[in-house]
Structures are given as structure tokens and as C-alpha cells.
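Bug report

Summary: C-alpha cells for Fluoroquinolone transport system permease protein differ between web form and batch submission.
Environment: batch mode, default settings.
Steps: 1) Submit the sequence below via batch. 2) Compare with the web form result.

Sequence submitted:
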Amino acid sequence: MRKLELFKFDVQFQIRHGFYPAYALVSLLYIGLLSILPAPYVEQASILIIFTDPSVLGFFFVGGLVLLERDQSTFSTLFVSPIRIHEYLFSKVISLTTLSCLSSSIIFITVHESHLNYFPFIIAVMLCSIFFTLLGILLAVRVDSVNMFLYMSPALVIVFYLPLLDFFNLIDSFLVYLLPTKAVLLLLEGSFNTLSLWDYFYAIAVLTPWISIAYMLTLHEFQRFLRTKCF
């Protein structure tokens, strides 16, 4: 019940502070851009847009949210209540993943209509958003300001964008298959093609441990942050 209440609060907070209107506008801009591209480039451009923006919006939004809540001394009172850290993390991750899925779905369904395999698409967006939102929280509790968060962000996430080089046939290395974002790109490509059971197995087998590690690191750093900065 607490998780549901926290989730509802976070969604309402995001709506009140313009997250949903902002990404409604962003989605419309992307739809407009994709609608004027030559047909042979639309599929690849769609995957690139979803991979680099809506799927990872949680990383940047959650960083700002956590730093804002810290500056407002929210944590000093929040965790003397019955709320647990894992419930707080769950709410932040799922609420932003919901926004990510909505934005991505609007773009893809509008542009590609029925020419879309929705199952691998939504798995890709959901798992990618969960992973990057956790990374955003992890970084947010390690820095002291929004400017520092933005400065450090590229150093943390750039390695996860390396599979784009393989996506555009600029490199050919099996090492990219060890990264969770390669699995995300494979699933997004599967939105337009047929994936084998092995493809699904590979994607889940790679993404699950990465998400688990990101969660454990984030939980540990959040606990350390609360001990050293809030109490």
C-alpha cells in the first residue's frame, strides 16, 4: 500500500512540475521530425530517438528530483516515517519508467501505426528506463549539486552508449554484447523484425544482472548518503 501511495504522489508531483506536459511536447517534436524523414531512414531514426531520449529520461529527471528533495531536507523527515528506502526507490523508478513508456509508445505507435511488434518494444523501454533511473539515483547521491550531476553524467553513461557504434556498423566487437544497452537495441530492432527465443533469452540474461547490480549499488549508496548527509 505504501508503494502505491508513493507512486501516486510521485506521478502527481511530476505532473504538477510539468514533466508530463514537457514530454508530451517532446514527443510531438519527435513525431514531427520522423514524419518528414525519408522512409528508408525512419526505422533507424526511431530506434535512435527512443534509445537516447525517452528510454533514459529517468536518469536526468531523477537526478534533479533527488537533489531537490535533499536541498529541501525531505530525507531528514521522510525516513523517520514507516517508509523504507526500497519503497522510495521503487516509487521513483516505476513512476519515471511509466512516463518513459508512455512517451516512447506515443512516438512509436503514431509513427509506425500497426507496423510494430509491441512486445519487445515495451520490454526494451521498460528495462532500459529502470536501469538508467537507478544509475541516476546512484550518481545523485554521490554529488553535491545539479551542476556536478550534469558534469559527471557523461563519464557514467558514455560506456553504455558504445553499442550505438555497432548499431551504425562502425565497429564489430562481441564485447558490446556484454552491455545492457546492446540488449535494449536488439529488442528495439525486434520491434520491426522477428526475434528468436535466443534473442529474448540473451536480452533478459544480460539486462537482469545489470539491473540487479545497479539496484544493489544504488541501495548501498543511498543508505550511506542518509547516514552521512542527513542524520
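Above is the batch result. After comparison, the two runs are identical; trailing whitespace caused the diff. The chain has a mean pLDDT of 88. The longest helix spans residues 197-230.
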